[in-house]
Amino acid sequence: MPYGRRTFSSEFPAYYLVVWLRTIAIFGLLWLNIGASFGATHERGQATSARAGTHVTPSVARASPATIKPRGQAKGPAVDKGRRRVVHKRKHTTSAAQPMHIGKITSKHRRQAARVAREPRDARRPDPIATQQTTQQTTQRTTQQTTQQTTQQTTQRTTQRTTQQTTQQTTQHNARQSAASRASARSGLRLLARCGYTRRSRALLRARSVYVVDERTHTVLTEKQADRVVPIASVSKLMAAVVSLDVRHALDARLDVTVQDQDFDKFTGSRLSVGSRLSRHDMLHIALMSSENRAAAALSRDYAGGRPGFVAAMNAKARALGMRHTSFVNGTGLSPQNVSTAEDLSLLVAAASHYPLIRAYSTDRSQVVFPGGGRASLSYHNSNALVRGGDRSIVLQKTGFINEAGHCVVVRMLVHGRPIDIVVLGAPGPHDHIADVIRIRRWLRCSLAR
């Protein structure tokens, strides 16, 4: 072959084959190494994501029997080592109440762990709002139960006390009735059935409290809740008249009606205007006959100790007369705190009947006074319809009314020459108290006739 001319041979050199095989081996090893590294990384990422997304309860481990290997087994690839590390961490997970080893897990615990793993994470966490509501409901139930128990105990105690009081009152009432029956048998005074006094006719009495007693023998002829403490309204003026006359002031002296005499309890009006001047005689007269409130207020103000001293004298007089259930706070009776019983008021009627002026003024039919101050005269009439109608058997009386007390009247009348005291308190209608007195008067006149 001449120099400079290149020719190609069909033979493949041997050293080229070695170079290509070495290159292919190197690329193959690199590919296998990259694939193994990527697979291990991928498996570790899956294990990490599974551990982050699965909540293991404190009392139950999440390891499966397949991941638990005996101690003598040879170590596997890096993937198995990563899995064993996860199992190793979960195997020693303990509960605050009771530790549990992975070897003690039963099928029941596995099922519970699987069920918990399927639940959402938010469902496994306690809801603070629901917990607060449950606590409030529990507290409310406990409070309601405690309140009900306390109410029941209080009701039982109140019922027991009421029963005891009712029993005592019934016993006292029966004792009084027995004593009255014995006194009636001794004196021969009693209301007769042939005169209309029956159980049915007694039920027709409209007043809340009734007390009828013979003054001479102190025989109780009939009664109805005579020991019940009730407001007495203007019947209080009877005690005010007694205290005013006990002072023995000059009755001809004149008294002025001032602003202090106005009614600040019920805000009632009066025909006596502020600035009027009347004598003590006239003040006492219209206070008893027509129940003039400003006249009684002026009398209570005209006292040595003022109005407080006058009220104290009224209460002291009540205690002296044996009126144990009677109390006064003013002299007019406009306050519902002026209270007494029908039995106590019979003692007041008996005491007031010893004052001639009280008997005369309370049963007078009318009176004309001259208050001055631009008014020539004022005409007053009796507040008791029986007195206005001309019943001369009544020797002493006093009426009264406020909303809390109802219609009240106390009367001393002569029945065939015998003084009988009648006390009627708490009648509902404006004419019921007078109707009760008329019914009792009919019984008395028939039963005590000789």
Question: In words, what does this structure look like?
Answer:
The chain is of the alpha+beta class and 450 residues long. It has 2 domains: 20-122, no CATH class; 185-447, DD-peptidase/beta-lactamase superfamily (Beta-lactamase, 3-Layer(aba) Sandwich). The chain is built from 14 helices and 11 strands. It has helices spanning 14-53, 78-91, 107-118, 121-124, 128-187, 199-202, 236-247, 280-289, 293-301, 306-320, 342-352, 356-362, 385-388, 432-447; strands at 209-214, 220-224, 230-231, 254-256, 277-279, 339-340, 366-369, 378-381, 394-402, 406-415, 418-427. The strands form 4 sheets. Strands 2-1-11-10-9 form a 5-stranded antiparallel β-sheet, with helices on both faces. Strands 3-6 form a two-stranded antiparallel ribbon. It has a two-stranded antiparallel sheet with strand order 4-5. Helix 7 (236-247) packs across helix 10 and helix 8 (280-289) crosses helix 12 (356-362). The longest helix is centred in the middle third of the chain and has 60 residues, at 128-187. It is elongated.
